[in-house]
Automatic annotation (TrEMBL):
Cofactors demanded by this protein: FMN; [4Fe-4S] cluster
Name listed for the protein in its UniProt record: 2,4-dienoyl-CoA reductase [NADPH]
Molecular functions (GO terms): 2,4-dienoyl-CoA reductase (NADPH) activity; FMN binding; iron-sulfur cluster binding; metal ion binding
Database matches in InterPro entries: Aldolase_TIM (IPR013785), FAD/NAD-bd_sf (IPR036188), FAD/NAD-binding_dom (IPR023753), NADH:flavin_oxidoreductase (IPR051793), OxRdtase_FMN_N (IPR001155)
Enzyme category, top tier: oxidoreductase
GO biological process: fatty acid beta-oxidation, unsaturated, even number, reductase/isomerase pathway
Assigned keywords, A-Z: Flavoprotein, FMN, Iron, Iron-sulfur, Metal-binding, Oxidoreductase
Organism: Grimontia celer
Record-stated family: In the N-terminal section; belongs to the NADH:flavin oxidoreductase/NADH oxidase family.
Any matching Pfam family: Pyr_redox_2
Domain FAD/NAD(P)-binding: 378-641
NADH:flavin oxidoreductase/NADH oxidase N-terminal domain segment(s): 8-332
């Protein structure tokens, strides 16, 4: 039988060992690395991915010494005790047919503690602490520490290590003039600045042996001023190959870069061309990464010769069985990563455990366990949005008889609106996945159905997941023809005039502002140009001046609350929204009091002054209200209902909470 993805699923011979396919599960910090009983949970997490067919797993970053830790209590790997503890992880992966490498990461000036060290004593724009410049002795000891940690990793059962040389961490800080102003043999010209990277690889190879995988995460596109050029990247790659690396993995952008690299706004496979530029310069396998989330995208990259392997990280939070489903030609059954960052990166940056918006069981494999129900009942689910489908599919998996009622003619709820926002097209993948799972689970679906108490009297359990409706603020003239609520606007997409005021600057208001200012027929090259990315990488860091944007429409984004406007709720993505809107000329106004809407436009008061915004349309994005009126009716009839998702609490649209509530409720019944 022919393989559905012949390049993706082809083995890769590394000489001393073979990987069963071209899939590398990229490094992700989960928060389990430091938590109590975390290694048992990590073992379960990685075991599921190994069982699901990943060719090579890379762990989250572990520091080779104390001063290299990201936080004071961050994970460190530098002792025999640590090696013994990690056996739980490596054994679990090997028992499930996988291979795993430990990532060694020295934070350098990104360390969030006063003991930070770097090439020079310059504080990074995203750090609280200025680092101390490393002495010659500290540099040599750090090189030894990398070597020792690699040797211990081998003792712990790891098949290899990944040396973190990108994303602006210590090794990257030595490589670039941006953060290295030294005048000794570790600074100055490029040969000196890459010395640390090369010596670390040599030390690791010497201590770990010849038959041990060494991946080097090389920053091929720094996306910061005074970063590397392509010629310099080639020079370093050749030096690393000579020093003994097995695989070179692509790194894109420093953490302090002001260019999005992995958020949902980034086009799929937006940076595969970066890896392709290095092809032919070295003979070791090259891995490409960033926004690769389907087998089709991965196969196209490999088939076109842009890389030898693909790295996917968040897609394995979304679906542990990604590779197995690809092997079985079941791509439609994959729970696709939508690159929202809401439960993974946003959690990690808040010091919380990572998980996944579309798969709440990620990193909770030992806690959110779906088991067959002992008392199988008949359950009615009212509302076919994300909360309703999440509950329905999990309950059906447990053996309950489930009937799903939806008043509209399609499932998906608010995601049907979200997927129409430019940069959120991935949300349609979640609708596809959950709808398909509903079909496969034997759930009876009744569309175009308004539910009443009479319809529910024969059910043992009732779950209300009726979602939200737009909140209509008490503004004089809110029923004027110029005014339209966000749901109606996104659903019907009427023709807009050249001047639009948006009432409400939360996540929905930002989405609408993005939608109405999006350029037509936007290509990947257009996107790269918008963000000032130089495809020749002849400029330092791969950046050139961003073009001036000519606004097609005048837009005001308004909020009652004073202070920052347009950032949105996402911790790791909010700045992208704000910068996008600013580039597009959207006027962001906080501290606004709304007076009325009339033929002249929107009347407001700002800083005590009256203004008339001559808007042709006013789009109302002033929050949501729960749609849960049915609950009181059911209670009057003596029918107890479980309320989840937006019906339970409107707030900002929160699919993360809705999907998780659905799974947890289904498990608890």
């Amino acid at each position: 039988m022919n393989s559905p993805y012949p390049h993706l699923l082809a083995p890769l011979d590394l000489g001393f060992t073979q990987l069963k396919n071209r899939v590398l599960m990229g490094s992700m910090h989960t928060g389990l690395e430091e938590s109590n009983d975390g290694f048992k949970k990590l073992a379960a997490f990685y075991a599921e991915r190994a069982k699901g067919g990943v060719g090579l797993i890379v762990t989250g970053g572990f520091s080779p010494n104390f001063r290299g830790r990201l936080h004071p209590l961050s994970a460190q790997f530098s002792s025999g005790r640590a090696a013994r503890a990690h056996r739980t992880i490596t054994d679990a992966v090997h028992e499930n047919g996988g291979k795993i490498a430990l990532q060694l990461l020295h934070a350098g000036r990104y360390a969030m503690h006063p003991f930070a060290l770097s090439a020079s004593d310059m504080r990074s724009p995203i750090s609280k602490f200025a680092p101390s410049a490393m002495s010659e002795r500290q540099i040599l000891n750090t090189i030894k520490d990398f070597g020792k940690s690699a040797e211990l990793a081998r003792e712990a059962g790891y098949d290899g290590v990944e040396i973190m040389g990108s994303e602006g961490y210590l090794i990257n800080q030595f490589i670039c003039a941006r953060s290295n102003t030294r005048y000794d043999r570790w600074g100055g010209n490029y040969e000196n600045r890459i010395r640390l990277a090369v010596e670390v690889v040599k030390a690791v190879r010497e201590r770990a042996g010849r038959d041990f995988i060494i991946i080097f995460r090389l920053s091929m596109l720094d996306l910061v001023e005074q970063g590397s050029t392509h010629d310099e990247v080639v020079e370093l790659a050749k030096a690393l190959e000579k020093a003994g690396v097995t695989i070179i993995n692509t790194g894109i952008g420093w953490h302090e870069a002001r260019v999005p690299t992995i958020a949902t706004q980034v086009p799929r496979a937006a940076f595969a061309w970066v890896t392709e530029r290095l092809k032919g310069e070295v003979s070791v396998p090259l891995v490409t990464c960033n926004r690769i989330n389907t087998p089709e995208v991965a196969e196209n990259i490999l088939a076109s010769g842009q890389a030898d392997m693909v790295s996917m990280a968040r897609p394995f939070l979304a679906d542990a069985e990604f590779v197995a489903k690809a092997e079985q030609d079941r791509s439609d059954d994959i729970n696709t990563c939508i690159a929202c960052n809401q439960a993974c990166l946003d959690h990690v940056f808040k010091g919380k455990r990572a998980s996944c918006l579309v798969n709440p069981q990620a990193c909770y494999e030992t806690e959110l366990v779906v088991t067959p129900a002992t008392n199988k009942r008949r359950v009615a689910v009212i509302g076919g949005g994300m909360a309703g489908m999440s509950f329905a599919t999990t309950a059906a998996e447990r053996g309950f008889e489930v009937v799903l009622f939806e008043k509209r003619d399609t499932l998906g709820g608010q995601f049907n609106l979200a997927m129409q926002i430019p940069g959120k097209e991935e949300f349609k993948e979640s609708i596809r996945y959950f709808t398909r799972k509903v079909e496969q689970s034997g759930i009876e679906v009744r569309l175009n159905t308004e539910v009443d108490a009479e319809l529910l009297k024969d059910f043992d359990e009732v779950v209300v997941a009726t979602g939200v409706k737009p909140r209509i603020p008490a503004i004089q003239g809110i029923d004027h023809p110029k005014a339209i609520d966000y749901q109606t606007f996104i659903r019907e997409q009427p023709e807009l005039g050249g001047r639009v005021a948006i009432v409400g600057a939360g996540g929905i208001g930002i989405d609408v502002a993005t939608m109405i200012t999006e350029p037509e027929n936007h290509t990947l090259d257009d996107w790269l140009k918008d963000w000032g990315i130089d495809k020749t990488i002849s400029y330092e860091g791969g950046l050139h001046p961003q073009p001036h944007y000519v606004a097609q429409r005048q837009v005001w984004l308004l909020q009652r609350r004073a202070g920052r406007v347009g950032k949105g709720p996402g911790k790791t993505t909010g700045w992208i929204h704000k910068k996008t809107l600013e580039k597009r000329g959207v006027e962001l106004l906080g501290g606004v009091a709304y007076e009325k809407i009339d033929d002249a436009g929107l009347h407001i008061t700002l800083e005590g002054q009256h203004h008339i915004l001559p808007a042709d349309h006013v789009i109302v994005c002033a929050g949501q209200e729960s749609v849960n009126g049915l609950v009181s009716t059911l209670e009057e009839q003596g029918i107890k209902a479980h309320v989840i998702g937006g019906a339970e609490h409107a707030g900002e649209l929160d699919a993360k909470r809705a999907i998780r509530q659905g799974v947890k409720l289904a498990i608890s019944l």
